[in-house]
Specification:
The complex is a heterodimer of chains A (about 130) and B (about 500). Chain A is an alpha/beta fold. Chain A contains 6 helices and 5 strands. In chain A, helix 3 packs parallel to helix 4. The longest helix of chain B has about 80 residues. Classes of the chains: A alpha/beta (about 130), B alpha+beta (about 500).
Chain lengths: ~130, ~500
């Protein structure tokens, strides 16, 4: 209890149906971030509304509610609209990137990604929120 | 009826009318000629009659001259005239021989003349030789005049009858000629009308359809191949219309086939593009894990247990890449028909158990419910390939159903077959998509949007099962779940694939 109160690290929600990819993001972010993982869109939205994080890493292809739908919900909700969202996708044609950015993503991270790139995006967006 | 037949018919009609015209003319000519000969005969009769009349006048005047003057010259004239009587009378009688009323008249002339000469003239001459005064008496004179008048009256009757006959004959000839001329004019008018009407009909029957065909041909030239002409009319026109329609029909069919081929090529192209895009997508997720964890391991220091865990992830994801590469290779092999089965006898139950353990490693996202018999079910087949099939069904069940749900796997024997069923409570497949799930690169739209996949697994699986003489089918209800049922023949395989396909025995 005291730990959580004292914890002022940026809070991150990692949404991906592939466990190894979630783990990769969590491990890459390391101790500087407080991470939580969910594997589908509905759970992600529920968790966001329950306790809004600073930053979301959002996979596009999710079972059930897709990543882009989750992103639109976030941007439509005043309580969540200022959360930083990084869309992560293996689909990376110009059209896919454009859809993500037009739907309100702060950044687009293609798979596979460089660990430094992911880290710098996370730090930049988290810093902006402070 | 064909145009040629109609032309023939009309020509026949015209010829018949011309024939009628000729017959009428011939008839008129014959009847004119008959009237002419009749006329010349009548004039002969008239001449002969007049001669007899002259003769009777000569007889009367010479007789009276002799009685009054007693001059023997008159008697000589009388004798001379009398000598001509038989010849002239018989000439007249022979001329009217074929005409009964005239014949009667001629005969009565002959009789009267005969009576005049014998009963009267000879008596008067005899009397005159004895007593001129007695012969000159009024009784004798009036008797002679009466008899001659009677003869002349009969002769006049004969003349009048002959005149009437001639008149009748020429009037008949005239009317026959009139009729012949009328018939001729009628035939000419009718045949001209027939020719004109027929010409108009031919123009209508040929020119109009030809114009229609020309207009339709112009439409075809402009690219409209759906043009069809209506049939009917003369046989030649109908044949033209039929030929035209079959031409446009085959043109349209040809174009349709070209369009279809084009569409197939395009479809193929799209498949290829989809494949490339899908391959790159499918490769990226495991590749991201492999590259990411490798980079982390190289850059950072982790405790040994964490290092080991990341290496295991790298290993799993690298294997996944290898499996994907294998799938693509299988597609190549199946497409080329180069799939070679390595046949061994093995226990299918054990194979399913193995695969289940592999896919439901603890901790697992889904609950496995395994229902297998205690005794082995031995089949003959390619163990690695069939492992691939079962593995594919299990990974699909996991992929397409929510975490925490059950996946029910059962193995049993039904008759001569071993049945493996894999059931999930996942998103299911709608009826239309179910017909396509075994096609290469097919992905149901909702699945493709949310779940990664190549659309190759089931296509490859079915090909493998089919080459084992087995079947792979799916039953599914959208939103409830899917059950894939794999059926394989129990026991030794029937000789070589492709040979003895119809052998009934499966023991």
């Amino acid at each position: 209890m005291t730990v959580e109160q004292a914890d002022d690290r940026p809070r991150v929600l990692v949404v991906d149906d592939e466990a190894p990819l979630r783990e990769l993001i969590v491990v890459t972010l390391g101790d500087g971030f407080l991470c939580e993982e969910v594997s589908d869109g509905e759970t992600a939205l529920a968790r966001l509304r329950e306790s809004p994080p600073d930053l979301v890493f959002l996979d596009v292809m999710l079972p059930g509610l897709g990543g882009i739908d989750v992103l639109k919900e976030i941007r439509a909700d005043p309580a969540l609209s200022d959360i930083g969202v990084v869309v992560v996708s293996a689909w990376q044609a110009q059209a896919d990137i454009a859809v993500a950015l037009e739907s309100g993503a702060d950044s687009f991270l293609p798979k596979p990604f460089l660990v430094e790139e992911l880290l710098s995006i996370a730090e930049e967006l988290a810093g902006r929120r402070r | 009826m064909s145009l040629v037949h109609r032309v023939g018919l009309v020509a026949g009609g015209v010829a018949a009318l011309v024939g009628i015209l000729f017959v009428a003319a011939l008839f008129a000519i014959l009847s004119l000629r008959h009237a002419e000969s009749r006329e010349s005969h009548s004039s002969d009769v008239t001449v002969a009659t007049l001669r007899v009349r002259t003769l009777s006048a000569d007889l009367e005047s010479s007789l009276r001259g002799y009685v009054l003057s007693a001059n023997p010259r008159f008697l000589a004239l009388f004798r001379d005239a009398r000598a001509r009587v038989p010849g002239d009378v018989s000439h007249l009688r022979s001329l009217v021989h074929d005409d009964p009323p005239q014949r009667v008249r001629a005969a009565s002339v002959a009789g009267e003349l005969h009576a005049y000469l014998l009963d009267y003239a000879e008596n008067v001459i005899t009397i005159a030789q004895f007593s001129r005064a007695a012969a000159r008496g009024p009784a004798a004179g009036s008797e002679g005049k009466r008899r001659i008048d009677e003869i002349n009256g009969t002769l006049d009757g004969l003349l009048a009858a002959e005149n009437q006959r001639t008149h009748r004959a020429s009037a008949h000839a005239q009317s026959v000629t009139n009729v012949a001329v009328a018939v001729g004019i009628g035939a000419i008018v009718v045949s001209s009308a027939l020719v004109l009407l027929f010409g108009a009909w031919v123009a209508r029957a040929v020119a109009r359809p030809v114009r229609r065909v020309a207009a339709a041909a112009a439409d075809v030239a402009a690219g409209d191949l759906t043009v069809r002409l209506e049939g009917g009319g003369a046989a030649e026109v109908a044949a033209l219309v039929t030929a035209f329609n079959s031409m446009t029909g085959s043109l349209e069919l040809g174009r349709h086939q070209l369009l279809e081929q084009n569409e197939q090529l395009r479809e193929g192209e799209r498949h290829k593009r989809d494949l490339i895009s899908m391959v790159s997508h499918e490769l990226r997720t495991p590749l991201a894990a492999v590259l990411g964890f490798t980079a982390l391991l190289l850059e950072r220091d982790f405790p040994p247990d964490e290092q080991r865990r990341y290496l295991e992830i790298i290993d799993t994801q690298a294997r996944r890449l290898a499996a994907l590469a294998g799938d693509f290779l299988d597609v190549q092999l199946l497409a080329g028909g180069d799939l070679t089965l390595v046949l061994t006898s093995f226990d299918l139950v054990e194979l399913v158990r193995e695969q289940a353990q592999l896919f439901f490693l603890e901790p697992s996202s889904h609950h496995l419910v395994l229902d297998v018999p205690g005794e082995p079910l031995v089949i003959e087949g390619d163990r690695d390939r069939l492992s691939q099939v079962v593995g594919n069904l299990l990974s699909n069940a996991i992929k397409y159903s929510p975490q925490g749900e059950e996946v029910r796997v059962s193995v049993r024997s039904v008759g001569d077959d071993a049945i493996v069923a894999v059931a999930d409570d996942g998103i299911g497949i709608d009826r239309e998509d179910a017909a396509h799930v075994f096609e290469q690169f097919f992905r149901a739209a909702d699945a493709a949007a949310t779940v990664g996949g190549t659309g190759l697994g089931l296509a490859v699986a079915r090909d493998i099962v089919t080459s084992h003489d087995g079947t792979l089918e799916v039953e599914s209800t959208p939103g409830v779940g899917s059950t894939f049922v794999l059926s394989l023949p129990l026991g030794a395989r029937r000789a070589v694939v492709g040979a003895e396909q119809n052998a009934p025995s499966r023991q």
